[in-house]
Amino acid sequence: MRIGLITADPAHPLLAAATRLLTGHGHRVDPLDPDGAAPGPDRGALADVYLLKARTPRALALAARLESYGVPVLNSAAATERCQDRVVMAELARAAGLPFAATRPVDTVGELAAAGEPAGPLVVKSRYSRRGDLVARADTAAQLRELAAAWPEEPVVVQDFTANSGWDHKLWVVDGRLFAGLRRSELAPDGRGPTRPLPPGELPAGWAELALRIGGVFGLDVYGVDVLLGPDGPVVVDVNAFPGIRGQAGAPEALADLALRTARTALTTRTAGAAPTAGETKGQRRKSA
């Protein structure tokens, strides 16, 4: 099988480990930088499946083009895009009855600052999820003004701060297999720290089912979910398509298995579609006689 990686960083630990597993069993793995100079493969040089790790606009456009050729992409371009706009993310999750943090869009942080003192602590995030985006807590108008000065034109969303332990529960799913970890929140006074392993069996009751349900709602096969334990139970604050999933034993194997199974299914479908039926074969023989 031939597997394509849509990424600018094929050396990422998860991708590198999955690549070693795949190539070790005789499969070919081809990195494809969506933001590089090359336009991408044409129809005559397609992989059997593509893993969409990058989430830039060019990466999404490339993934959509590959899908139009009939090649499966994990995650799909549409599913990945649903996780880029945090307003769309929240609306989709809440419409499905998921305990997602109430999220409202604001044109700029300056608009928030101009409204005066907030009624309570706020979490301000870039509306469009990307590497290095804005995620900050603001308790006062002065803090909002500081954010506005640093991010003057940034479209943002606002969530009321959920009182919690200061630890984010990081839940990752690869093809229905759950992995978990604990990490100090980037909003905690000491900032983000390393991720601690957390056996999925030690999650609070119902959290595993919640994480798996999110995949169905968003149409994702490889994804991450950030969950806080609030006063009234779990609060989902973010969903990420194809996250890093570092240091989780079994994750590279699950990813490699998913890629191969998807590629084989697509190949079987294409082969079945190309093969003539018995009736077609008989008809062709009569025509040629």
Task: Please give a structural write-up.
By secondary structure, this protein is α+β, with helices and mostly antiparallel strands. It is 36% helix and 24% strand. The chain is built from nine helices and 13 strands. It has helices at 13-24, 57-68, 77-82, 86-95, 109-114, 141-150, 207-218, 251-274, 278-288, and strands at residues 2-6, 28-32, 49-52, 73-74, 104-106, 122-126, 135-138, 156-160, 167-174, 177-184, 195-197, 222-230, 233-241. The strands form three sheets. It has a five-stranded antiparallel β-sheet with strand order 11-10-9-12-13.
What tags apply to this protein structure?
289 residues; 24% strand; four-stranded parallel beta sheet; five-stranded antiparallel beta sheet; alpha+beta
**How much is the average pLDDT?**
90
Q: From N to C, what is the helix and strand string?
A: EHEEHEHHEHEEHEEEEHEEHH
Count of extended strands: 13
Number of helices: 9
Query: Radius of gyration, rounded?
Result: 22 Å
Could you name the ranges where pLDDT drops below 50 across 5 or more consecutive residues?
A: 281-289
